[in-house]
Amino acid sequence: MGANIMKQVTEKSFLKYGKILDLDCKEVIAAMETYTPLPDGVEYIPSEKHLESLSSFAKLRDEVYGGLDIEFGYCNGANHVLNAVEYHRSSEVDIAATDLILILGWQQDIDLTTYAYDTDKMEMFFVPKGTAVELYATTLHYAPCSADGQKFRCGVILPRGTNEALEQVPQRQGENQLLFAANKWLIAHPESGLDKDGAFIGLVGENLTV
Which of the residues 10, 41, 71, 104 has the least number of beta carbons within 10 Å of its own beta carbon? Predict the structure, then answer.
């Protein structure tokens, strides 16, 4: 599929993964620049009180998620490698507070016998600063990647509790092998080092880099 070819999030090929939302991102960008750090690595915080006090939070809760209880956190830092893919039983909204790159795939392409997934099926999309996108539940994704060698800030909105520790751990068979956290199914690459955290290793092919 040409996984290393950069596409624009405005291209038609993005539509099977998600859509651009009509959301004014100015207050989100200002809040993230004020209250969220830019680490050298990648930091993900599921819920951030300053972001959840914004008017955008109420709009996302009431309109995009239809009144569901949601969390508004962030994923910030510097990243140039895929390492893993994850999916949820719900859409995820990402707000680009800087330019960033998303590497995306399709859940339907996972081999349901082995739960392997070939990274050659993935596509890279450039998301410009100030863009909010909804990634559908069937979209494979992971941490954003840096654009032009710069660190990134990305607001992340999900149903509340997503990515928290599991209260009940089901028997590790079938798709349950992928269940890594609440509402989070994950497939990691052998080069990721995530096996030490109990991640299912099933990505085949290149560990994609930007």
Answer: 41
The total number of residues written for the chain in this structure: 210
What's the DSSP call for residue 122? -
Could you tell me the CA-to-CA distances from 91 to 64, 113, 162 in Å, in that order?
Answer: 9, 25, 11
Q: Report pTM.
A: 0.96
Question: Does residue 1 lie in a domain region?
Answer: no
Say how many C-beta atoms besides its own lie within 10 A of residue 113's C-beta.
Answer: 6
Domain count, the chain: 1
CB under 8 Å to 207, separation ≥6 — which residues? 81, 82, 83, 119, 189, 191, 192
**pLDDT, tens digit, 9 for 90 and up, residues 99-125:** 999 999 999 999 999 999 999 999 999
Q: What is the CATH number of the domain that holds 66?
A: 2.60.120.10
